[in-house]
Amino acid sequence: MTTRQTDIDDPFRPLAFFEKWSLEVLLQIGLLVSLCVIGLNQLPNRIWDPSVERFTYVIGVLGIWRYGWWFTHLIRARVYGHLVYPRLASAAREMWDTGWRPRHMHFMMTTFREDRQITEHVIRGIVTQIREAGVPGTIWLGSGDIYDERLIEDHLRLIASDLDITLRIVRQNVPGKRIAISLVLRAMSRGDMRDDDLVTFMDGDFVIAPGSLKLCLPLFAADPELQALTTHEAVLVRNVWWMQAFLNMRFAQRHMVMQSHALSGRVLTLTGRMSVFRASHVMTNEFIRLLEADYLDNWLWGNFRFLSGDDKSTWYYMLMHGCKMLYVPDATGYTIEIVKGSPYTRMIENLRRWSGNMLRNGTRAIKLGPRKMPIFIWWCLVDQRIAMWTMLISPTLAVVAGIVVGIGYLETYLIYMILTRLIISIVFFGYSRRVDLNFIWILYVDQFMNASIKIFILWRLAQQKWANRGDQKSGFSSIGWPDRLRKWMANYMTVLSVCCLILVTVAYTQILYTPSFDIIHALLIH
């Protein structure tokens, strides 16, 4: 059940049906289901014990709600992937085949002391896109170190001497990815750019798959209302099998949900790995300033700037202006992750950064209201805030029920969790390259950890860390009593919110009985 070497060697090679759904995989699924059925028949079933029956109903209702929401996403994703997107792709492909090309290909890329092999893969991917299009191209490089500049210059001379490619280097004078991007965009706005030009934003560790941009760029010509799009992505992790499986599951989930969102003409993120914008937006001062100095005004932490999440800022700008956005499921690329230090710490830091970016941007996006976006997209943003609380209710109830009626309840609950996560995983297998039964436990761990981390970060929005970008930090200062007071208040609010969640849960299930006003009045009198 570990990641196979073929995933590392050739991430773009599609698998045949019987290679993906091999006999070994089917036997593993059959064995797991059989063990669960045997367990349900042989273990004492305490689920319907009268003393905890109410617990089971609450867990069941929450499960029906959450799985119903997943089913909604699945149906919408199928409609987009099999009905809506093929028509869009057909129109775009016809335009490309009949000779349409962008006037010029622009790549906005940032990098900082990236691994040599990764950078060379990235540059080869860009050169392949320009060669396929047969038009001039410019790489706008936001750089913080001469090492990257010389490496890219040398590799372009080696592999692209026959192409019309210009490398424009913009050396940043202040650290940070946001600053690098904003400086590049200002340089673009002073150059020979037109409003109808298309700009590909990408990270310095993202390798674009061959043929990806010829799928993306003509979509803008076929649909004048389209203002931005993003693509599918994968990741290759060196030597940490469980992290590879973890990220495979998350990207399979993303692949499905993004198609569901795109059915409404919007997405919930324009990933910094690779997204394409019309130049008419990215050259405006409003767009550049939002990227450069995006901030949040919080009741506890005051006014603070965002450290990471530049892709959320660009998305918020497009959402705020009512722009149409799409997801291109058959255009892809991959990131190569070289994990230094503890992979567990790295994953937790990633979850903390991703969740923090979602929370910092989600509130202001919700405040735009459903008039600024389709109602389904607005509700998806609201649901993100609700799900982090409801996810913790079921395990809380299961633990309490286990205390009340014994470990038999927890054993049955665990079997049901395996079966329900298996069903969701089978759905995700349809959007992943391989079938990996590790998805089952990873899905539950991911949901639980995400919910816990989000509640923790909810009261610490100013505290930001970007471990794999030079270990940048913000909001962790303890200088002076105001900073110490804020941290104490954040700890207090975290404990208070978790206690309230537990108390409301156990009170609703009538483990604890809330006193009536008559009882309170009698106690006060006597």
List keywords for this structure.
13% strand, alpha/beta, globular, 7-stranded mixed sheet, 3-stranded mixed sheet, 526 residues, Spore Coat Polysaccharide Biosynthesis Protein SpsA, Chain A
Q: How would you sum up this structure in a few lines?
A:
This protein has 526 residues and is an alpha/beta fold. It contains 18 helices and 14 strands.
Description of the molecule:
The chain has 526 residues and is of the alpha/beta class. The chain has a domain at 102-346: Spore Coat Polysaccharide Biosynthesis Protein SpsA, Chain A. It is built from 18 helices and 14 strands. The chain has helices spanning 5-9, 17-20, 23-42, 53-97, 116-133, 146-159, 177-189, 212-222, 241-262, 279-282, 285-293, 310-320, 343-368, 375-405, 407-429, 438-458, 481-508, 517-525; strands at 105-111, 137-143, 165-171, 198-203, 206-208, 226-231, 234-237, 274-278, 295-298, 302-305, 324-328, 333-337, 464-466, 472-474. The chain has a 7-stranded mixed beta sheet, with helices on both faces. A hairpin with a 3-residue loop joins β9 (295-298) and β10. The longest helix has 45 residues, at 53-97. The chain is globular.
Layout of helices and strands:
Blueprint: H1 5-9, H2 17-20, H3 23-42, H4 53-97, E1 105-111, H5 116-133, E2 137-143, H6 146-159, E3 165-171, H7 177-189, E4 198-203, E5 206-208, H8 212-222, E6 226-231, E7 234-237, H9 241-262, E8 274-278, H10 279-282, H11 285-293, E9 295-298, E10 302-305, H12 310-320, E11 324-328, E12 333-337, H13 343-368, H14 375-405, H15 407-429, H16 438-458, E13 464-466, E14 472-474, H17 481-508, H18 517-525
Parallel strand pairs: 1-2, 1-4, 2-3, 6-11, 7-12
Antiparallel strand pairs: 4-8, 5-12, 6-8, 9-10, 13-14
Helix pairs in contact: 3-15, 4-8, 4-9, 4-14, 5-6, 7-11, 9-16, 12-13, 13-14, 13-16, 14-15, 14-16, 14-17, 15-16
